[in-house]
TrEMBL record:
The lineage of its organism: Bacteria, Pseudomonadati, Bacteroidota, Cytophagia, Cytophagales. The keyword ATP-binding applies. ATP binds at Y15, E27, E75, K93, D94. Belongs to the bacterial diacylglycerol kinase family. This is Diacylglycerol kinase family protein.
Length: 133
């Protein structure tokens, strides 16, 4: 493979890492998503979830982070193209934010489906559920 090609690919990888780093460093919402991911990972470790369940958790985390990075990119592009108020600019930002919310709801549903059986099996929760019925 030509050296120039490899250098270009490595540069592209570096730019992508820079973009990812900027999202984690400067986006306030990203910090919330990271916190949620840490909680999910802690629960996964605590309950010793199965490898297949880890796959769903990793997928859910990746989905939300990816949506947030796309949202940030779209916000920046919108601010560049339309720094002043414009209805379409507002719609574009609302749609991008809606995509993040949809990803977050999906991740929440995955989290509930995976963790609920483990939570329900905890003696204190099982006892409480028994008293409820
Ligand atoms: N140029 C604009 N024209 C019209 N409406 C806009 C414009 N910029 C922002 N808005 C409206 O204000 C909302 C918030 O926009 P803003 O850029 O502050 O994003 P945000 O949700 O606060 O994102 P973040 O907190 O991640 O920066 C948008 O979803 C949109 O409805």
């Amino acid at each position: 493979m030509p050296r120039k090609y490899i250098k270009k690919r490595l540069n592209s990888f570096g730019y992508a890492l820079r973009g990812m780093g900027a999202a984690f460093r400067y986006e306030p919402n990203m910090k919330l998503h990271v916190l949620a991911a840490i909680e999910a990972i802690f629960l996964g470790w605590f309950f010793h979830i199965k490898p297949s369940e880890w796959c769903w958790i990793i997928l859910a985390i990746g989905l939300v982070w990816m949506a947030e990075i796309f949202n940030t990119a779209l916000e920046k592009l919108t601010d560049l193209v339309s720094p002043d108020y414009h209805e379409l600019a507002g719609q574009a930002k609302d749609l991008a934010a809606g995509a993040v919310l949809m990803a977050a709801f999906t991740a929440l549903a995955i989290g509930i489906l995976i963790f609920w059986p483990y939570v329900a099996a905890l003696p204190v929760v099982a006892e409480w559920l028994k008293n409820l019925s």
